[in-house]
Design goal:
The structure is a homodimer of 206-residue chains. Chain A is built from ten helices and no strands. With 206 residues, chain A is an all-alpha fold. The first copy, chain A, has a single domain, classed as Tetracycline Repressor, domain 2. In chain A, helix 1 packs across helix 2 and helix 5 packs antiparallel against helix 7. The interface between A and B is large, with 42 and 42 residues. Chain B binds a DNA duplex (30 and 30 nucleotides) through helix 1 and helix 3. Chains A, B: GO terms for molecular function: DNA-binding transcription factor activity; transcription cis-regulatory region binding. Chains A, B: Keywords: DNA-binding, Repressor, Transcription, Transcription regulation.
Amino acid sequence: MKLTRLSDIRRKELRQAAFAVLQREGIAGATIEKVAAQAGASKGIVLHYFRDKRELFEHAMRESNLVLRDAVVARLKGAHTPMERLDAVIDGNFEPHFFQPSLCHAWLSLCAEVPRDEKLKRIQRVIHSRMRSNLLSGLRGLVVEADANDIAFGITTLIDGLWLRLGLQPGSVSRDYALRQVKDYVAARLASAELPPATRPASVGA
Amino acid sequence: MKLTRLSDIRRKELRQAAFAVLQREGIAGATIEKVAAQAGASKGIVLHYFRDKRELFEHAMRESNLVLRDAVVARLKGAHTPMERLDAVIDGNFEPHFFQPSLCHAWLSLCAEVPRDEKLKRIQRVIHSRMRSNLLSGLRGLVVEADANDIAFGITTLIDGLWLRLGLQPGSVSRDYALRQVKDYVAARLASAELPPATRPASVGA
DNA sequence: CTGATTATTGTCCCACTGGTCAATTGTTGA
DNA sequence: TCAACAATTGACCAGTGGGACAATAATCAG
């Protein structure tokens, strides 16, 4: 029953190596051998730990997803008001550590395969729905349900778009500018939305 | 000097075939042979018209770009007020003909290669800067320059994000919903922006 | 008509890829 | 100590991909 520790470690190394290769080479240029080289191992070992190429890159996507999740969760710890929760999610998505072109390139390559890989599709759905639910946990305290849904969708979409832009034209979107775009969006939409039914305005600024 | 007609026709056929293959197979699965098959020709002919694989897919991206450009230009013809111009650009980007998952999949695959292909990068830049300039031609009549720039960037980003979402979860974003998201965004940001310096408010609604 | 140019095909080659497998080398627990 | 087992390697294979090329067909200019 006890899982071999070494096994877990290798698998993690290989997932990360796979992701690194994805950054450099894109999905079209990513090969098992390159992943092995990146991890300083032999090709055989990669297929010892992962059934095939697909599984390897599916785990690579899970891996990158974890980083994002952790960043958001960490920031969510100290957030108490709805607005703080909202900002936590947004800020977490632009963590300097990983709001970077190379990481974005890998992410893009994975996204490009989503339509042809059911597992990747599922991972994507999970990521998106978690982000949405995190945003809603803040938004519900600020506006009525219908608006909250729309604004949450808008925020995720805007964030996706900013990431995409970072991948396509790295110079054209700094972390600060990206953050400001999202915050301006939130401000503008909150200003023209209905207040929530059960909450008093005072709590918003608290 | 006169370019062979036939040559132009073949090249166009092959560009389109390449794009079709990209929709089905993604960049990782797209091969010259499949493109040839798609066009009902032999592999040799593809490399007769295009220096290599890269060039072929660069032209495929140009091709897809044309479709978008034409859609926007057509709608822009009849637009006279700033607001009409703005809507023309936005509507054009969600033309039912091509706001579709399969097309989006191909587009995504091309985007994923942008970081590793200087030509693709240039095409991307052109597309983006044209969209931006089209948006600005409307926005400048509605808000001050600084706001116009930010809002234009926000709109392009939002549109990119909506396309991306269409690719990742086709069911989750209908054309109508996408349009509403963008329109709501514009409305909210216009409401909280400064009016333009040289234009009288009356002209806005004219 | 004819010579030159262009279009098109099919073949060939070589590098590489994903994946299998047998063999080797630790590692460990009794 | 030794047997069982996990980790790791390197060789191997069949299939495929990109691209070069020579040969053939079609087109066209004069």
